[in-house]
Design goal:
Length: 185
Amino acid sequence: FSACSSLTSITIPDSVKSIGVSAFYNCSSLTSIIMPDSVTSIGDSAFYRCSSLTDVYYGGSEDDWDEIKIGSGNDYLLNANMIFGKTGNSSVRGKIIECHYGSGTITAVIELEKILEDCRVVLGVYDENNSLIAITSGSATTTDGGIALSVSADESYKNGYVKVFFLDGFDSLNPLGNAKKSEIL
């Protein structure tokens, strides 16, 4: 696939254990990769000059990813947004744009930057000792640009922080993106 400028996405089969040297070299339109956890090594410059690469959907965990031997010249791969535990192109990417305490509630406003399937958005409130002290959730659909979630709280909650999780529902609770953390203002 080297220098294949029309390639925009690639799904690497489960049978692949190694991605060779310069395999996707200069695939300048490549934006996303779906990679199974069977991959154990990535050769030098396999994703060199893949300047459009933004998302890598990796089937394993972050710890599994850290075990992969990745050669030099793969900066675009290493700087892409990593979605762990998924090998399908279903993800949510969002950010907490506001989180505040007022009138007995904590409210977090979450901007959904990328949502490819309907999902459950869960807001967890943690105290300064990293213990979960409150939780609430809401639904988000592919047409939503954002969601605001509120949970009842007392003033002591202000010393903690919130995390937002994106899940595929309450039946399987599979993460669809990385959790986001924010201080409470």
